[in-house]
Design goal:
The protein has six helices and twelve strands. By secondary structure, it is an alpha+beta fold.
């Protein structure tokens, strides 16, 4: 279950980016995310505690530099290192972490096909519809993919957008070198979303997720944000890539 959630978080973050001891210059933004439903393939009659993990409202915090990115919620943290090409998932409750090597191919044809099938044939369509959201004038984009569809409201009025696009070049280079991310063809698709996503409305693999921007700012980010904290134990996740 945690692996599926990690894959979902990874995809959500990648879509959203369409558009040492000293602290690094970077971007910070946070959004309110509302999730509903149960991912496809989950067993019926799931315990209430398990359902609550998928159906909840929470704040998502994002930290982004030219070298790494971090996305965190109250109970999970995902860190991508663009140089090492790794994805680390932290479990703050259990004080454990897992590492995914993005340079390696996923094990097995089933996993290989699943990753490719998530975005194979995806289409992004710009519309003429505009709307003010969170104080920004946004343009509506439609996204269709084999396992779902969504709406993106993006803007170019966020003053930090140019900085994000500049930093995003490192991320695109990493994605192109990764067998997992390259086959998903994410970089080419992200370029079609001309702006910073202020609100997204996704229907994906049985889940509906609405994410709305609350604040964004440029500020120094400490390297420790992108490292595994002391005292955490490394574990191997079942079915990991």
């Amino acid at each position: 279950m945690r692996y599926r959630k990690s894959i979902w978080m990874c995809l959500a973050v990648l879509f959203f980016f369409s558009a040492v001891s000293a602290a690094h210059a970077g971007l910070y933004w946070e959004s309110l995310m509302v999730r509903k439903g149960v991912p496809e393939g989950m067993p019926p009659n799931m315990p209430k505690a398990a359902l609550e993990q998928f159906n909840k409202t929470e704040v998502v915090k994002n930290f982004f530099t030219e070298d790494a990115m971090r996305t965190e919620t109250a109970d999970s943290v995902m860190i991508m290192n663009f140089e090492a090409m790794t994805m680390v998932n932290l479990n703050p409750v259990e004080k454990t972490y897992t590492v995914t090597d993005l340079k390696a191919r996923p094990h097995g044809q089933e996993m290989d096909g699943m990753m490719k099938g998530m975005t194979d044939g995806m289409k992004v369509t710009a519309t003429d519809e505009t709307r003010e959201i969170a104080g920004f004038m946004c343009r509506k984009y439609k996204v269709k993919m084999p396992m779902g569809e969504g709406i993106y409201w993006v803007t170019r009025d966020v003053k930090e957008y140019k900085t994000l696009r500049k930093m995003g070049k490192k991320m695109e280079e990493m994605m192109d070198k990764s067998p997992v991310l390259r086959q998903m063809n994410m970089a080419a698709l992200m370029d079609q979303l001309d702006g910073f996503p202020v609100r997204t409305e996704m229907d994906f693999m049985g889940m509906t997720t609405e994410t709305t921007l609350r604040q964004i700012e440029e500020k120094p980010l400490k390297p420790a944000l992108f490292e595994v904290p002391a005292g955490y134990k490394k574990v191997v996740m079942a079915g990991s890539m």
